[in-house]
TrEMBL record, chain A:
Any Pfam family matching the protein: Fer4_11
Compositionally biased residues, Basic and acidic residues: 551-560
Record's keyword terms, sorted: 4Fe-4S, Electron transport, Iron, Iron-sulfur, Metal-binding, Repeat, Transport
Domain 4Fe-4S ferredoxin-type: 7-35, 173-204, 206-235
Family annotation (InterPro entries): 4Fe4S_Fe-S-bd, Nitr_red_bet_C, Nitr_red_bet_C_sf, NO3_Rdtase_bsu
Gene3D superfamilies registered for this protein in UniProt: 3.30.70.20, nitrate reductase domain like
Highest rank taxon of the organism: Bacteria
Region (Disordered): 525-570
Molecular function per GO: 4 iron, 4 sulfur cluster binding; electron transfer activity; metal ion binding; nitrate reductase activity
Cited PANTHER family: NITRATE REDUCTASE BETA SUBUNIT, RESPIRATORY NITRATE REDUCTASE 1 BETA CHAIN
Biased composition (Low complexity): 561-570
Protein name (record): Nitrate reductase subunit beta
Biased composition (Polar residues): 525-535
Automatic annotation (TrEMBL), chain B:
Annotated positions binding heme b: 53, 63, 185, 203
Identification of the protein by name: Nitrate reductase-like protein NarX
GO molecular function (one): nitrate reductase activity
UniProt KW Nucleotide-binding keyword: no
Similarity section: In the central section; belongs to the NarJ/NarW family. In the N-terminal section; belongs to the nitrate reductase alpha subunit family.
The species this protein was found in: Gandjariella thermophila
Amino acid sequence: MRVMAQLAMVMNLDKCIGCHTCSVTCKQAWTNRGGVEYVWFNNVETRPGQGYPRQYQDQRRWKGGWTLNKRGRLTLRSGSRLKRLLNIFANPDLPTVADYYEPWTYDYDNLLSSPPSDTTPVARPKSLITGEDTAVTWGANWDDDLGGGPSQVGRDPLLARVSEQVKLEFERTFMFYLPRICEHCLNPSCAASCPSGAIYKRTEDGIVLVDQDRCRGWRQCVTGCPYKKVYFNHRTGKAEKCTFCYPRVEVGIPTVCAETCVGRLRYIGVLLYDADAVLEAASVPHDQDLYPAQLGVFLNPHDPRVVAEAERAGISQEWIEAAQASPVYRLIVDYQVALPLHPEYRTMPMVWYVPPLSPVVDVLTSTGHDGEDAGNLFGAIDALRIPVEYLAELFTAGDVGPVRAALRRLAAMRAHMRRINLGEETRPDIAESVGLTPAEIEAMYRLLAIAKYDQRYVIPSAAGADAHRLDALATGCSLDSEGGPGMTAFDAIADRFHLTDTNGAAPDDKAGRINLLNWDGRSTTGLFPAKQTNGPDHAADQPNGANQAGDHPHGADRAAEPANAAEPTR
Amino acid sequence: MTTVLWMTVPYVALTSFVLGHVWRYRHDQFGWTTRSSQLHESRLLRLGSPMFHFGLLAVIGGHVLGIAVPASWTEALGVSEFAYHLVSVSAGTLSGLVTVAGLAILLYRRVTVPAVRKATTTNDKIMYVLLTTAIATGMLNTVGSNLIGGGYDYRATVSPWFRGLFTIHPRPELMVGTPVSFQVHNLVVLALLALWPYTRLVHVFSAPLGYLVRPYVVYRGRDPRRPDVRRYARAWQTPSSTPAARR
Ligand code: SF4
Ligand code: SF4
């Protein structure tokens, strides 16, 4: 047994209102640069629908993820290593910008600079890639809310599998939103298909990252990821992907998408798993066994043997405690209401979903039934074949059993809580019929419905990830000591990463330097310190400055040590 | 003049080639990439790029054989001059033609696909001009001089001259009297080599052969002390300048 810790996310789809706030804030934080105009690390797609990029789930075409070869061994669906290398000059399975969408802007200037005329000036759409006029024909969420009707939505690759004769008639239609980020898989096929070995999984928290210095632009990872969550920056020639906002989670605060989620439907927590068991679990012969197999890889953080092994593996007390308090573990293991997205891709994804009950409730209510009655709900879950089968295609490789069980637990929760709200006598048999106790149902309700920020996000800080470095990092901020003003999460970030340019803490002579997060690779002005007569080394070693001590309290610890700071730091 | 052209220039170019790569590798890992444009256009690329790259690999292999292996060795193996000539010209012509066809498709694509044209930098353009000229003059030598013009035995002159550069016994006089097309080819290739480390061509040296033997999934620890101290310390304050590290 080799215990490893993984930061995982669960999203409760019943609460997603499809507002795209998560996508927008993520884009503002990470991909509002040249070369990644078309990239959404977080996107929200309407199901049924084609998704982004179009029909990415059709792996016969895109060849993402893993498959079993003739000898039953796990191998990349896109072919052996040798085959990947032979295809390195032209990747036959690479989506082009057209498969995502051609990013565009509008010629707003024409509205302002147009001379007086009889006709209203227009702002023409311009391609963000070529700068020329473009026709807007597709976008990252073009078929939002079933837009485009059957002719577009009907091209959903999952619909075809559900039934030979799916009709998207209005009265029988259903829909829900599916927000997606990188799954930070336990068995990441993106990393496995990177010829340079630039994509790696972090041992401390399982976050999958692209080393921008080692990526050589072979773009095999874009094909390798079945969720199409690695993107190629066409300006820098490097692959980029969701980073699980590691600079934020390292200081204990949630990802941008989770922080800003309007529905408050995202949960982040730690899972302990047995790294030695991953390969075997990912190689089970039948697709439908992958969901239970993955459950079998997770370790119970309350088991003393697991705790002992975790300690031996160097996982700190803070992380073990976080794993025990993990909301994600509760939803996935204790209540089994969260399911993985497309386990059949065999990457062991780590962003799980509570399937939406609302399509079922909606149909029930629209037919005049009581959508919160346990009996009605249970019956409807069984009767409404298409939504349930569709959800099963998404979450359990087509096995309706676990989906039905999860939906029944949600239904039982509804019925049980309604009785409490209306002051009726509770019926323990409702809870028991789904394998939970009334107390568990109520705890699940609190977690799903009213959990506060620090219950939804239980994120240990990275400083505690490896206990032996604790000493070195514990002195992170002298103001954090007894009697000091203490640090907020933002201060912690600012202090660690010196994001000083925008918060006014940069010394005057460096105020113009570039913020790397916004750098588009076009110019190097501001990247390097200006030449100074007393030597470049001296300039670079200047502490962040006495001149900030007055206006930013956290400058104080730096300003207090000018002598130290003048020494070489490396 | 002979000495400058066939001794100084080659050494300058080769020095730039070697030192340039070392310098770039140490200071510009982020810029070290193929900068592929397949994202913009895939159909033409899938036709032209494999032709070009595989053709060029064969061409380079042929150059290694023709330049590095002295004529006396092949003779010792019992390969007659005629047989050698036959093989080298036919294989050379074939791979050359594939390369040229591939390059033609790629250049056509560069020019006609707006997104790809837009992604072409000045650096790329200079590189393309040199590369195209090098390949064109090379083809001229193989096809023109050898096939049509009755054959030229470069293994008596050009090859020993080039080997001499590496054994530190440069013999620039060997290049005197060689056909002009060979001289031009050599000079263009030297220019290309000199510029090589500053262009996208560096990607040749990251051919990822290690992929065949490494484990599928790479694990790596987060090391707060390591990241890029050397590269960025001059420009930015890095996490390493937290109080703990300063002490
Ligand atoms: S979802 Fe993320 S970790 Fe998994 S294969 Fe894709 S990019 Fe890699
Ligand atoms: S912000 Fe939350 S509610 Fe809005 S689309 Fe994203 S996940 Fe759904």
